Structures are given as C-alpha cells and as structure tokens.
Amino acid sequence: AELVNRPRLIKRLSEGLNCKLTLVSAPAGYGKTTLISEWLEQLPLENPIEVQNKFRISWLSLDEGDNDLVRFLAYFIAALNVTRAVEETIGADALGMLGSPQPPPAEAVLTTLINEIATTPDKIILILDDYHLIDTQLIHDALSFLTQNLPPQMHLVIATREDPSFPLSRLRSQEQLTELRAGDLRFTFSEAVEFLNQVMVLNLSDEEVTALETRTEGWIAGLQLAAISIKGRDNAANFIKSFTGSHRLVLDYLVEEVLDQQPESVQDFLLKTAILDRLTGSLCEALTSQENGQATLEFLEHANLFIIPLDEERRWYRYHHLFADLLRSRLRQTHLEQIPTLHNQASKWMEQHGFIDEAIEYALPAEDYEKAASLIEDRADAIWASGEHHKMWRWLDILPPEFVTSRPELLILRAAHFFTRGQPDAAEGSLNTAEQALSPGKDLSTVTASIKSDQLPEFERMALLGRISAMRALIDSYQGDAQSIIPHARQALDLLPTDDIWCSPAAITLADAQGYIGEMEAAHQAHLEAIEICERTGNTFLVIYSHVNLAITLRQQGRLEQALEICQQQMQLAAEKGMR
C-alpha cells in the first residue's frame, strides 16, 4: 500500500516501450520486481484509453524448474493469455507444436508464435521475473531469436540478478534495448528519506538518513533490514553508528538482529520453514510441529518480514529470495543436523497432498534416495508423456549411481537419457545391465542391480523387457539399422501391455523399418497397426505422425488419392486439437 514514488524510473520504463526489450538487471534487494509492478500500476494513469483498449500485460515468475525448454515455452505462451478482459487467445498453434513427444526446433515454434503476435491489434507487455534462475542455453538461444524477431506489437521485460546469456550488444546497437541497473535502482537521498521516515515511520534526521544511505549505498534491502532493526530501539543513533561493513556482512548482521528481536516461536518457525520454496499453513505445521501455520504466515506478512503472498486468498506464500538465502545460512549454522529431517517432512507432506514432483525435489536433498527413486518410477510415464524430460534427467543425475543401477526401470530411463544426448553406446550399456537384472536363470552375482527378476511380478518383468526392446528399436532407427529394428520392435510389442506408452514408438519404428527395406505392403499394414496403437495410448501427436507415415507409404505405392484424403483428414484433426 505504501511505496516510494520513483517517477524518474517509471518514465524510463515507459519510454522503453518503443524498444523490443527492457532489461532490469541488479543484485538481490534492489527493488526490481517492486519497480516494475509500480510501473504497470501507473500505466493506465498515463494513458487510460490506450492502455485499457490496446494493452495486454502478463507476468511470468520463473524458477529453477523452468529450465526445460518445452516447459519454458509452454508457460511463456500461457502467460500471453493470462490477461483480464481479453477473450482471443495467442499461440494456440505454437502450444500445440510443443505438445508433441518430439517437439520441432524452438525457432519453428517461435516463428509460428511471432507470426500470430504480428496479427494482433493489441500491444503486449510480458515480464519475465527472476530470469537469472534460467541456466539452459537452449532457452537463452530461443529467447534471443524471439527478441531479435519481435514484432512491434510486443515488448519484453526481463528482471534478473545477472545479465542473460544472449547477445545484448546487438539490441543495444540497434537502439532496441532499455537498461536499468543497480546504479539506477539504488535509492537517492530523497527516496531514502521518504522510505525511512514515511513508509517505515522512523523520524530520522537528515544526518542519520545520510549515514544509512551511504553505508548501504542506496541498497533497498539493506535499508529495509536496517529500518526493521531500528524499530523499537531507544537509541537509533547508536545503532546507525555501528552499522557498517560490506553488503553481505551487513545483511548477515541485520538478519541476526531481526531474528533475535522476534519471539522464540517465530524464530523457530522462520528457520524450520526456510527450506521451502513456497509455504502454506499445514505444510509449515508439518515442519514446525506448531498448530498455527496460517496465522503465523499472516503475522509475518503484516510484520513486513520479507514474505510474499502468491495468491489472492493468501494461502500460499514464499520468502523474499534474499531473506530465504540468509535463513537457510542461519539454519545450517545452528541446526545442521535437522535439515535432512525437515526435507523428509516436506517430501512426505507434498506426497500426501499430490505434489509428487515437489516430493521428489525434497526427498533428494534429504538423501532419502530409496523414496526418491520409487517416486521417480511412479512419475516416469507421466513426465515422459508431457515432454518434461529435462526434469527426469536432472533427478537421475542427482541420484547416486548405485540407486540407478539397482533398479531396472531407472536404468531404462537412463538409457533414454543417453539416447537423447546422442550416446547410443552408453544407452546400450544401461539396457544390458537392466536386461541382466531382469533375466531369470542367469548368474547374477556380478550384476549391480539389486532388484532381481524374482522380486518382480511376471507382468512387470515382461513389460520392462518390452521397454528395453522398444528402446533398442529406437537406437537402431537412430543408427539406420533397418534389419535390427524389426525384431526388436516386434519383441517389444509382444512383451508390452497394450496400453503401455512405449507401444507407440515401437509400432512406429517397426512400420518405418518395413518401408526402409522396400516391403511396402508390409509397411502399409504396419502403419495401420501403429495408428491403432497410437490411438489406444491416446497421444494425438503420434496419431497424426503415424497417419503421415501411412500417407508417405501410399504415395510411394502410387495411391495418391488415398494419401491426399489422409492428409486432409489429419490437417482437420490437427486444427481441432490446436496442432496445425
């Protein structure tokens, strides 16, 4: 409700709308998010008719989980449509392209999106907040391509603690970049006076404000922490005189001062919930053994203790990133032995409430690798179908090798990981280890897998062997070995349950292989069977893909009218499903 008015910065942000990109880049605690929020609130006041009728304003807050290219682009497109009073959607075709198990290159998706944006009468402003959490070069490259080719209808704003890894110099030379940095964002003396005396109600003298402003170098988070520490003190002047040091040391000192002034129960609450990326009442209660989780969160918000609501109902919150970092540091210093237990409790709560991915994320740092491995296996098919492979690969990289090699299903997933990275020999090695563990009657004394075939129900063992064969058919296809594809694909289809998601790639590779060797009638029949299997497993992209392959086969057989009819039908299906 009470913010420091910053007209000089608001003006620069508004002037930047004539460029393609605005970059707000500064360390934590410089008020980047607050400034952009304030600017957006004031846009209607500057030109109410234009803003109301022509502007679409959307905000996307990023986190580490958004480092998967498909997920990032899907959220990016979804954000374009989270705008009140705007009925038409943008990017449906591009979103459909991302829904495929094998999405096209990012530039193809973005070209479709750019062309659609170019037809809208609206001016679009999209803010990407916390972009420093993105470390995937594919995403940097995609955003660079998008920015270079943005139509005039769209303006992109990036808020970040560090510059993004794409060429800003080109945009700078083209006068298509507006930049605000730490030197721009730091509070001036007059802003510090307004903040300390009007917002925080401290009634400090000009000399005291000058001392704080000088020692924090206008660093807003430092001033805020100093103000919280000063509140309730009898002698503010003595505190200000002792307030010195580098940013990090000052902040460590102030957080300690803030924590020490809170009741013991609040200190305990803050430290034990510091491991959480987002907080809600019952989750906090599970970690703190207190029964007032929601009330404490509301108290922290009213006390201005660096907690940010994530929804209108004030059910979910997060700590300010800087505050969370320091709470975690304090937790490691004072209660290191409790950290695994806290992660375990968070993982258990997440699992009980259906947040399985988050349950895995907390089980891994708790080093409860057995639980994490089981949950990964449970989620594998859903993640595979959604295309969020990056998440799966990251989890497998964190799991100690012995927990991967002890579970055939994880070995198959690791083989898929190697395959997608263009390492077929490494993929085959993982498949061999999994196969040994699943094969009865063999001497398994030298096999690292601890889950032997006699510990699995027969139908599960057969299904896993079927997935190994399907994976080998994909590797054979990658290597152009048509003769090897056929027996592996057929074996996969014989072993897999009819509703298994791995049936579709097995059937498709089998049909393709028949065409590779010139057996066109066999290929025709195999494509029909592949279509039936893909329809059964419910993947629209693979249904269309299989029909395209059938049309190619029909064309090669000279059956052009049938090929044309199939293509027309699939174009219609694609349009209906938003996958044109």
Structure in words:
- Helix 20 runs antiparallel to helix 21 (369-386) and helix 25 packs antiparallel against helix 26 (458-478).
- The longest helix has 21 residues, at 458-478.
- This protein has 580 residues and is of the alpha/beta class.
- The protein is built from 31 helices and seven strands.
- The model is unreliable at 442-454 (pLDDT under 50).
- Strand 3 (123-129), helix 7 (137-148) and strand 4 (154-160) form a beta-alpha-beta unit.
- The strands form two sheets. Strands 2-3-4-1-5 form a five-stranded parallel beta sheet, sandwiched between helices.
- The two termini are 46 Å apart.
Tell me the structural class: alpha/beta
Number of strands: 7
Radius of gyration, whole Å: 28 Å
Global morphology? globular
Number of alpha- plus pi-helical segments: 31
Helix amount, in percent?
55-70%
- N→C terminal distance: 46 Å
Read across the widest sheet, the strand sequence of neighbours is 2-3-4-1-5
Q: How would you sum up the major sheet?
A: 5 strands, parallel
Q: Overall pLDDT, averaged?
A: 87
Relative strand content: 5-15%
Low-confidence sequence ranges: 442-454
